[in-house]
Specification:
Layout (H helix, E strand, L loop, with lengths): L1 H32 L4 H32 L8 H35 L12 H36 L3
Helix pairs in contact: 1-2, 1-4, 2-3, 3-4
Length: about 160
């Protein structure tokens, strides 16, 4: 039972962090391949980002639930899972912010720019806002990745302090 539990926990973390690590590579290749058509590349990357967020939310909720149950099932000490649970909650919150805050605002800017953000001047306030949101999105995804790596380290440490 304990092995199955730990396997499910690590699998949930692996799925989320693996996707977070792989996503920038896919985005870069998409933009490089579709170089002249940044609008199409952006649409593909935006769709993939939504998939990444859903994967992250499902994986995060599973990992959070498993960590909450770990002390009850005598798998980890309660104190050992507290910080990883907090980090997962922050990761989930950041994912929700990106999915329901940043992405809709970027889409709104893209539509206001006439459908293609690169068609407007770089000094245009709409494009400036879009670029600001894009950088924020990159920073949020980076924070999610770093918090996820810290979570893995803390969960691995919990293995050494098991009951």
């Amino acid at each position: 039972m304990k092995t199955l539990f730990r396997t499910a926990l690590y699998l949930a973390l692996i799925v989320w962090l693996g996707a977070e690590i792989f996503f920038p590579i896919v985005a870069a290749i998409t933009f490089q391949t579709l170089q002249p058509d940044t609008h199409a590349a952006g649409a593909i990357v935006g769709h993939l980002l939504r998939i990444l967020h859903m994967m992250g939310l499902v994986s995060g909720m599973i990992a959070l639930a498993l960590l909450a149950l770990a002390p009850v099932w005598s798998i980890y000490k309660p104190r050992a899972v507290l910080v990883p649970m907090i980090l997962l909650a922050v990761m989930i919150s950041l994912t929700l912010y990106s999915q329901f805050g940043i992405i809709p605002a970027m889409e709104r800017d893209r539509i206001a720019a006439g459908g293609t953000i690169n068609a407007v001047d770089a000094a245009n306030p709409i494009r400036v806002d879009f670029e600001k949101l894009h950088h924020r999105s990159i920073n949020v995804e980076g924070a999610i990745l770093l918090l996820g790596l810290a979570t893995v380290v803390l969960v691995a440490n919990a293995e050494t302090t098991r009951l």
